[in-house]
Amino acid sequence: MPSASPEDIHMLAVSKNAMNPKGIPYKAMNIGSHEFYSTPEAAVTETRGSVQRGVSWHKQPTYMVLFAFLGIALAFTHHGYYSHLDGKQGTNNFQKQFSVTLGSLLAFSVVSSFLAANSAAYPQYLWMSIRNKAFTLSTLDKMFALTSDPMGFMSVEIFRHAPVVALLALVYWAMSLAAILPPGTLIIVNGLADKTSNVSVPTINWSIANAFQEDNVSTVPGTVIINIGRKAAESSDIVSIEGPAPNSYYSLDIRGPYVQCMAPNDTEKIYFDQYVEDLAQNNIFTSTSWTTHYQNASTLSDSLVSPWPSMAYLSAFDPWMYPGNDSLGWLRIGELDTSSPDQSNNWDVSIRRNISADLSNTNNKFFSVQPKLWVLTANDSFVYGLVNGTRNVHFNFIDGTQHISYGVLYDVEDVNMLWTNVPGYPGSLGNTRHRDIAPYVSLYQSMISMLSGNITAQIDTSDMSSLALNTVRFGLPSCVLSTGLAGCDDFLNAYWNDNPLVGNADCLPAVRGTTGHCVWRNAYTAFNISRLTNIYNSTEFFTKPASACRNHSLARGIEDLAANITISLFSEPKLL
């Protein structure tokens, strides 16, 4: 083996003591002779290394703080942006799409910033935990992989000795899920935006005579008015009106014809009583006529010879509206004795001929009277006078569907008609009434045409043997049954529902010197049965629900019907 010369190999011995480096001897060693040679002190260059412990503040801590504050700033920006958009109206599709995209971008940036801050903090805190505590190699491996392998959360040792490490890892995973599903996603939905603007709304033009009347010389309602009255009555609502916009609302004071319900005055009460008496003479009874005069009677006039009495539920009429013999809609001067209704369902009733003098303001040529609908039910009687009044009506249209309500009637004045009172002179349009009230009267007639007539019930004779006491309509039918008024308590809870009448086939006919008679009685008494057996039930033809009648009262229901018809005029462009 060749030997190396001392010049070829040099070994440097460095002492790590605290001695002065200039005093350290350096010698060259000869391998073969084991001798040391001195080296000049100036020929040696000293190299010293150092170990740095800790973290550079321009790196990880800066990242943690920077991304945390950035996430907070972006979160406030996201919240402020969405708060600004909340309730705002999107003008076009681009604006809507841009708002959604920008909001999602801000939400994703918030999550990404917090995720970056967490990613910088986790390894730093992990190393600090390792320096302070001892962990098994298996636990260390799980701790280093905890942000990529969720199975590490199964380790009890991590939660026991490094709970903050586990918490940071959980936050990391939560942030990852939040990055996939950004919170606070902006949703654009259809909504209502309040916008007040001045627009022109139509009003009713009462001067269009031939739109309201059949012709220019009568108060007979035209086809348009009849149709509006029928639709409003049958639907128990205002006919559909077109609003200024699909979603809009406004209020309007509507002055026009309405009716007011009132009890009959003393003079009207006299004629009501006469009419009730005439009905009883024709086997049609109200609760008053039955209980007062005939309930305990054993001998009646020969006109009452019938085994089957009729029960009156409704009789409605206006004694002034029946046309008589002339073609202008005037009352006939003679006795009102015609039983056939006219085309508007007005009908003649047995009212004494001097009613014109008793119930009107008369002079030697004319008499003035307020059109009134007279209504008689099984339990009560009242009148509805035609008036000129004002209601504040609120129109509200939501998605094209109307919601209309109105206030109380105010600024009311009676509407009076002038009639000729001179025999042989039927009168003419010019000298008997003012043109301004003609549309009012036409509208009034369209309403009473749905109400005028009789509704009576009679226990069917064909079912007596089986005690199935069914009701049948009897007399001139009223159209009330097709309206919501049929749900009023005046019908559903009428006197006859608990006291139905039944006859006796053993009637004695009239003979010379005597009068015929029948014994009529309460059906429940006659057959010793109770209402619980449902033997008699008037709801067979009063089929409307109680909710269709306001306050369950016929008195209020007819007032509503008149208001609905007047407001429904806005549905017809010809009248505006």
UniProtKB/TrEMBL annotation:
Spans through the membrane: 63-82, 102-122, 164-189
Keyword set, alphabetical order: Membrane, Transmembrane, Transmembrane helix
Domain of life: Eukaryota
Name assigned to this protein: Uncharacterized protein
